[in-house]
Amino acid sequence: MHKLADDLHQKLFNEEDARACKDIDGSACREVPGNFFRIIVSQGLTKIGDAVSNPKIVLPALLTAVGAPLALIGLLVPIREAGSLVPQLGIAGYVRQFAVRKWAWVAGSVIQGACILAMAIAALLLTGQVAGWSIVGLLVVFSLARGLCSVASKDVLGKTIPKPQRGRLNGWSSSLAGAVTIAAGVGLFSVSDQQHVWVYCALLAFGAVLWWTAAAVYSQVDEYEGATEGGANALTHALSKLRLLVDDRRLRHFVITRSLLLCSALSAPYYVLLASQHSQALAITTASFVAISGIASLLSAPFWGLFADRSSRQVMIMAAVVTALLGLVVVSISHWYPALFSLAWVLPGVYFVLTIAHEGVRLGRKTYIVNMAEGNQRTDYVSVSNTLIGFMLLFMGGVTAWLSQWGLMVVIAVLSALGLLGALMARALPEVER
């Protein structure tokens, strides 16, 4: 098996790249091929799990099927995203106590699988408000475990995979998940009009198996011991690391840039809502957008990953510009030629381009922060950045919700302006792949 991994790795990378072990321990270099494929498989499995428990599709449908209050549906996405980001500063202080940090990822993945399965059981045994709050409560625990995986994964990636290969690893795992997401989207067409609880529970149970399988694969990653300084008092250490935003100009610049690049994620629901307003011309459904996003990830992630290995900074710039220009085009069409939205291909095409841009933003910023830091600094950078971004996500989500009272185009225009500012901020960031 080890020889097979070596051979496949050699085919994927040229001889120079395969032998270059930048920024990792020399003894870890021999294990790069095996670790590369273990991490790809485990990340791909969890991304597929995310697709079959999507908080914009499966969980809302499940809450509706069990008769939960409508207000609870609005809590799903903020809890899923911000809930995994905000606590990361404290989580990182805990993770620092471990010299081998893959076990934090394994534990987080096991907990996520258990929460997803518990949601399915709650939906089968409970109804109404009790079922709804049970699922939302489990989603809180799920999000905390997701944050644990996020902190640990970037540190393990930095210790086991050389700089010239990290972007492509993220790209190929996203592409793998994108392929399965297409199938998930197509499959959801057949159940989108059904209210049978067991359909959604079966999807969640399948997701639980995926997370547990991912944990088993990830446990086989060969990770060498790292430093554990600062892990004695996790809370004190975590709070002290907020000082990084004052003392480290590069990290502060990156956090501001990443905050502006939230425009790609925050825009998506408004494009879906815009499409639903023109459903008389195109019977658009959430399932179709899931399939579209899967196709976009499948096609674009390998490109963005390869590009990120050369310059993750340039990836962020290009993706932000595409997001901003797309929004300005949509606003212009709405103002001067709104009938164009009635064409069957326009709005799906818009969402396809947006998903490609968001994939670039995501891969670019993930690769940049891993390559920007070294050693224990990487855990601090990731946790401080993610915690602040979690708060910014809640804040900007509230602002866009407030702006929506003046119409979708106002929201899209403001987010496009933020995207342009994000591109300008990214231009001033230093290169970290050299």
TrEMBL record:
PROSITE patterns: MFS. Pfam families: MFS_1 (PF07690). This is MFS transporter. Gene3D superfamilies: MFS general substrate transporter like domains. InterPro entries: MFS (IPR011701), MFS_dom (IPR020846), MFS_trans_sf (IPR036259), Sugar_transport-like (IPR052528). It comes from the Bacteria. The keyword Magnesium does not apply. Keywords: Membrane, Transmembrane, Transmembrane helix. PANTHER family: INTEGRAL MEMBRANE TRANSPORT PROTEIN-RELATED, MAJOR FACILITATOR SUPERFAMILY (MFS) PROFILE DOMAIN-CONTAINING PROTEIN. The chain crosses the membrane at residues 57-79, 103-125, 131-149, 169-191, 197-218, 251-272, 284-308, 315-337, 343-361, 381-402, 408-429. Residues 200-434 form the Major facilitator superfamily (MFS) profile domain.
